[in-house]
Each structure stands twice: as C-alpha cells, then as structure tokens.
Amino acid sequence: MRLRRPSLRGGLRLRLVAGFTVVAVASCLSTGVLTFREARTGVLQQSQDAVVRQFRDSVDARAPGFPDAPGKADLDSIVADLAYTHRSQQWRFLATYGGLRAVYGPQDSFDVLTPELRRSVSTRAAAVFQRVRHDGRAYLVVGLPVTYASSGGVSATPTGLVLYLVVPQETEQLYVQALITAIERATLPALGLAVLIALLVARGVLRPVRALGRATRRMAAGHLDTRLAVSGSDELAELSRTFNDTAAALEQSVAELRRMEERARRFAADVSHELRTPLAAMTAVTDVLDEESSRLDRVTGEAVRLVSEETARLARLVDDLMEISRFDAGAAELGADDIDLAESVRHTLAARGWLDRVAADLPEPDGLRARVDPRRVDVVVANLVGNALRHGAPPVALRLTAEGGWAVLTVADRGPGIPEADLPHIFERFYKASRARTRSESSGLGLAITAENARLHGGRVRAANAPGGGAVFTVELPLRHGRPAGTATAGAEHDGTAAEGAEKAERAERAERKDGV
Fold it and tell me: With contact defined as beta carbons under 8 Å apart, do 329 and 273 qualify?
C-alpha cells in the first residue's frame, strides 16, 4: 500500500504563517490607530489652545477701546486692526454687531460658520470653537463675544459685539497626513518581519513533525526498527519519545506474532507431511476393504464404509493443509499454460460426475483461451461447484464469459444464500457460515484455497446473494495468451488439450498421495 505524502499546502506551515500574519496585522492596525488618534488629538488640541489663547489675548488688549455702540466703520477698524496684528498667520476675522457685519477682505463670505456655532456664541459668554471641513479643507472657527465685566468680576454682560476667527489648518493636516504615511510605511516592514518570524517558527515546529511523518511512513512500509532522534524537552520531544516507545512495543509485538505464526505454519506443514505416509497406507487398505465390503456382513460393511469415508475426508484435509502451507510459505507457483478454459471447466465437471447436476453455460471450443495453471483452475472450479452442491439447492448454474480482458466464472445456486454477517468472512480459513454445522464433509479450507489460487493468477473472487435467492460466487482471472516460457512447475505439461493436462495433474496428485511423498 502506497501512502500519500501530506502536502504542506494548506497545512501546518500555512496556518502558522497565516496566524502570525493575522496577529501582526491586528497589532499593527490597533497600534497605528491608537497612535494616530492620540497624536492627532494632541496636535489639534495644542493648535486649538494656542489659537484660542492668542485670539482672546488680542481681543482683550483692544476691548477697552471698543465703542459701546460700534458702527460699520468701527467694525471695519476692529477687524483691520486684528488682521494687521496677525498678518503673518493668514487669519481671517469677522465682526458682527446687531445687523452690522464687517470682514477682513470683502471676498470672504465666511461660509464655514455653522448655525450651531452661531447659536453657541449667542447663548454663552465665553469663547466657542469648532473644527469644520469646507471644500475639502480643514478650518478651526472661533467665536468670541465681547462682554463687560461686572464690578465684582463674578459675571459678564454681553455687549452684542461678537468677533469670529477662521484659521486654516493646512499645517496640522499635513502633519496628520505625514503621520498616516509613517504608520503605513512602518506596517509593511512589521508584516514582513512577522512573516519571517512565522516561517522560522514554522520551520522549527515542522522539522520534528516532518520527521515523525517520515518515520510513520517507514513503519507503514514495514520498517518497524524506525526511531526518532529526540532533542529538547518540549511537547514535540515528548511526542517523539512516545512514538519511539510505541514503535519499540509494536516491533516486539509484531516479532512475537511472526514467531508464533511461523511456528503455527511449521507445525501445520510438519503435521500434514507426517500424516501423508500413514494416510497413504490407510487409503490403500480402505480401497481393498471397499472392494470386499459387499461380501461382509451388514454391520461390518457399514463400519468399513464409514472408515473409508473418514479416511478420504482426512486425506482431503491433509491435502488442503499442505496447499495452504505452500501459500503461507510463498512456495506456491503457477504452472502457466495457454489452455481452453471452457474445455478445462467441462473436464472438471465430467471428472467428478457433475455434468448432469450442473447447468453449464460455456463458450464454444477455443472461444475463450487464457494462460493459467490448469491444475489450480480445476481446484477453483471444483471447490465452487462442490460448495454449491453441498450447501445450496438445485439447480446449480455455472457460466463462463469474457469481460474486458477478464475471464469471469460465475457459480450460482438456489439455496438459502449466505447470511449478510458471514459474507465478509466467507473466504477465511475454517470458517463455516452455519454455526450449527460444526462438522461436515468439507474441511473449511476450500474457499480459502480458491481465493489464494485466484490471487496467485492476479485475479479476484467474491461472494454475494442473488436477488431471487441463493449464493453467487464470481471468479475473475486475467486473460493472458501465448505459449509458456518453460516447463510447468506446479501443474501438468501442455500437450495439446486442457483436458489431458488436468487429467495428468490429477493422476500425479493421486500417485503422490499413495507414495507418501
């Protein structure tokens, strides 16, 4: 099984960098906003206080010379005097008294005076100021009513004369704009530094994580001796230590399981091998007794037939165990030959007397050829058909077709089918779907051997239940054509027909059992 290496795209590195970037952006924005607000407030407050103080001082210095009921000429004189005093500051002045109005510069309409400011000046005796924007420019507008001080100095009496000052704030606006530019310029290096720090931190974090990923993939590939280098005492180091402890325990457990499996496999192979010699002798004896059973009395004849049947059953079990042992040891080989699959299946059914019990739907002679092991194909067909005849119900149907580069063999019956809970385990060794049938003619290895033979050919086998009832077993073998490269190692030599090869293989197996090999 090939494991896919996890991609860093969208992984931990991206999350770390994104997290650091978000924190840096939030920090820069919050710091910049707070700094800008405080600096702007300080600059404007200082400018505002200075302007109001200078304006009040200038008016206070000239107030004693103001007439009690100034006329238009008096108002013009007042604003001209104030404008001359602050001529270097580009301040603009407006004086009002009742319905009279005087400005410094007839072109100035003083549109920046808001109704709110006028109402505040009319209701208060102290200076009133307001910052406004007009035509895209910022202005500080100050309204100062001129009052008479009472004799005690506690209260003031308005004279009706109100002086207004309009101060453009280009300098302050330029300072604020420079502050914004400085914050923007400082934000970009801060973000770059945050990303750099994030990459360095991500590299330090991801190095042990990557090592852990590589070690995990090596363990999944079977290298259980893989260990991680542990450095430091942080959480990642603790994770590496835990991985090493887990790997050591897993290696020990797997090694013990392999030793137990090897002992069990060797035991089964040794027992099967040791049983073949006495079983060959017992089979020979039972064959002789079978021939004489007709001349024996009824009780003795039944005992002889029982002994013969059980001996044959034991011989089949030993043969199946030997076959499973070959698969487990990796010694099973294909005696591949280019044969007619339909003829091979037909011979299997005929050799076991099943032609009249199985409805076979086979291609025409030489209509479906494949490069397979004739003996193993014979075992597959015999196991599936025998299983259907023993545990299913007639009619048993066999169908052989070619589908997309595969030879598909289907065996179906009309029995009760396979319980859904048993379907995933039906090809396991010694597994029997019926718990009540603890002992039967079968060894419980037939379907497991069928699955192993299919896999040895590069094919597959599956079991299912037909919609109308009954079990359906399907074997798919790849279609490989051509003459064999050499002599078969586990099957019959090819001499022209699949039937002759399968027959020779069967005779060789019987001779091997009788010789006790």
Answer: no
